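We store amino acids, tokens; thus:
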Amino acid sequence: MKIIISELMDAAVVDQLRDRFDVSYDAGLVDRPDDLLKAVANADALIVRNRTQVNARLLAAAPQLKAVGRLGVGLDNIDVAACEQRGIQVLPATGANALAVAEYVIASAMLLLRGAYFASADVASGAWPRNQLSDGRETSGKALGLVGFGGIGQLTASLAVKLGMTVYAYDPALADDAPIWRDTGVHPVPLNRLVSEADVISLHIPLMDSTKGLFDANLIAQMRPGAVLVNTSRGGIVDEAALVQALQQGRIGGAALDVFENEPLPAGNAFPSLPNLLLTPHIAGLTAESNQRVSQLIAQRVTDSLSAASAASARE
């Protein structure tokens, strides 16, 4: 059976797959769509990250496809309904990169609250901005607001509590009396209250019609002065132009964005260079350790799926 891998995967795990399958691994294949369509023509499985678009065109070019492994958790780049109609299994790496994302959120919040880590060039040149950098804020005692309280949100909450933060969360899928609130010590609150009371807001929700543009100019304006926003979920949830305007006007304390409406960012995009704005290229969930965990999990899930398909075919 043949497996096509179109984006970054742990090399050692790829070699493990090669012991059992015919594997074609090209992390740059995602950027050559015509080559990708040719490659999947006889593929039994496809392994992707977030950039490969598993859409109607690709599925039509892959008549033998039995499984799509997703090296991550978001499925907005995969036409799940079309896969289900074809009997193609969609296999996400649920939970395997949660710690990497949670640490990214906490680290970004601490950097932005303290505000003291962007002066290296000034200090090296002989400047001494001690007075300007002496009013940074501590993380302990601050309120963290989580929009979405799934696995990653829950792990982020556990790290935050250990740092002395109070944690609020908004998740309409969870009842106010759900056991998870008692078990974690997190307070369920309406979205407007969370936005207005949190010192740090972190987004952990999928991009869908109900969340697209959720953090617009109106909601951003409700954030408390000095609050910071961290988005590791999906671009399109935050109105990027409204966020930049709030930062430039000093109405909020900072922002860290790992995801964007258009990825990679196009030339002439709306993001200026600001000392309280952190931009990273969709890597919150990607560390050396998480890449190995995610790759291992997806390799096993794809192996199990293809083995089951092969056994079913042999019985026919």
Remarks:
- The longest strand covers residues 143-147.
- The CA atoms of residues 140 and 164 lie 4 Å apart.
- The chain has a mean pLDDT of 96.
- The chain is about 35% helix and 15% strand.
